[in-house]
Design a protein that fits this description.
Elements lengths: L3 E5 L2 E4 H23 L4 H26 L1 H6 L7 H5 L4 H19 L3 H26 L13 E2 L3 H7 L6 E2 L2 H19 L8 H17 L18 H49 L1
Antiparallel strand pairs: 1-2, 3-4
């Protein structure tokens, strides 16, 4: 609950920006390190990290405008306002855009997508865990009112002015819930990474674990915008969480099973082709 890390007259260094930038740098460095251990080109992976970060920031802002379109339609000038530019945006919008940019770049640069994504997944979780501490410092992404003993109360008028967090009300610290989930998922993925058994396994675990955590935390978060999918029942984040969990489950269990079922047939075809080739050589002699 410290929105200003440094303030001098009208100049402000926001704590949120510092923590998000720190999470990004540490996440990229970790991803490059893991990718290099996996035998991937270090420079290409570093460039991918830059492209993914830019895509994630753009996607997060774009999804924010789409989700709150009724507000921006009436005030289109706010799309490019400092408040919107300083906002973190919609995390799932950034994640989906990052995956799309990552797929495009890996295809373009010759990197294997799933193997590269496995190297990035722990770094994404680490960066997210640190970034959500920035949300807590700024007051954004706040929770619903509660009487639980670990409730937090925001009191800084600057936080209310910038992000609209209510002051003087005990709230669920949903930012800390998500930060703890992100750091715990990072620890699990980082320890699991050396023991991965197939490409896409680490990405699959991330797409299963984080959306599951978000699905639960959403019940305690405040929602100021209308849902696009099912209004007044579940949030957009919960719908996206369920979809991503399905993709994660497919990567973890269905895809490996499908490959194990088709691989014997592929091996049989290769053996048959090899025998025919040898028979052709013998007959030519």
């Amino acid at each position: 609950m410290l929105p200003k890390l440094i303030a001098y007259d009208s100049w402000v260094l926001p704590t949120y920006g510092v923590l998000v930038a720190t999470g990004f740098v540490l996440g990229v460095l970790l991803s490059v390190h893991l990718a290099a251990r996996a035998g991937l080109d270090r420079q290409k992976v570093y460039n991918l990290g830059i492209y993914v970060a830019l895509g994630a920031m753009l996607g997060a802002k774009l999804f924010l405008v789409v989700q709150d379109w009724s507000y921006y339609r009436e005030q289109p000038g706010q799309i490019f306002s400092m408040a919107t530019l300083q906002s973190g945006g919609i995390y799932f919008g950034g994640l989906l855009t990052a995956l799309a940019v990552g797929y495009w770049y890996t295809r373009r640069s010759g990197l294997p997508f799933l193997k590269t994504a496995d190297a990035f997944a722990p770094g994404i979780a680490l960066g997210f865990g640190i970034g959500r501490l920035g949300c807590f410092s700024a007051g954004c992404c706040w929770g619903e009112p509660t009487t639980l003993p670990w409730a937090v109360t925001f009191t800084d008028p600057y936080a209310h002015e910038i992000v609209g967090v209510p002051l003087g009300i005990a709230l669920h610290p949903t930012q800390l819930y998500e930060s703890a989930a992100g750091l715990a998922i990072f620890a699990f993925l980082y320890l699991r990474y050396p023991r991965r058994r197939f490409e896409g396994q680490i990405l699959g675990w991330y797409l299963l674990l984080y959306p599951a955590a978000r699905l639960l935390i959403e019940f305690f978060r405040h929602h100021s915008t209308e849902a696009l999918f099912w209004r007044n029942t579940v949030s957009d984040a919960q719908v996206i969480s369920l979809a991503l969990m399905a993709v994660g489950a497919w990567l973890l269990w269905l895809r490996p099973r499908q490959q194990s079922q088709t691989s014997p047939a592929v091996a049989f075809d290769e053996q048959t082709a090899s025998r025919r080739k040898r028979a052709t050589k013998l007959s030519s002699h």
